[in-house]
Amino acid sequence: MILLFGCLLLLLGGLILWKKNVFFQLIQHTEKNERFIKSYAYQLLALGIFGVIFHFLPSRILDLFYVALVLLASAFFSIAFAKKMQS
User: Nearest 5°: CA angle at 44, between 72 and 62?
Assistant: First the structure.
């Protein structure tokens, strides 16, 4: 299951890097915002790689830690993105 989750994050991170203009319909297209979107895409790619690695390690604790880490990264991105939408 973690392997599927990791592969989906890899796919999503690649799509965000490839089609980041979708986000700029909601926020202004500035250099700072572009770096923000790119950094989130790279975070997703890194988390996807960790997910693929964690799949081969037989530990439920690592799996739960990984899911919690992905949820935290998503929460921080959502909060920061909402703040950028308001300004």
Answer: 60
What pLDDT score was predicted for residue 1? 81
6-18: per-residue pLDDT in tens?
A: 999 999 999 988 9
**CA torsion 17→35→74→72, rounded to 10°?**
130
Distance CA 49, CA 32 (A): 26
* Kind and range of the H or E run holding 15: helix 2-18
Nearest one of 22, 44, 47, 48 to 33, comparing CA atoms: 22
pTM of full prediction above 0.90: no
Mean of all residue pLDDT scores within the chain: 89
Amino acid occupying residue 16: I
* Residue 9: CB atoms within 10 Å: 23
User: What distances in angstroms separate CA 8 from CA 3, 48, 86, one per listed residue?
Assistant: 9, 7, 29
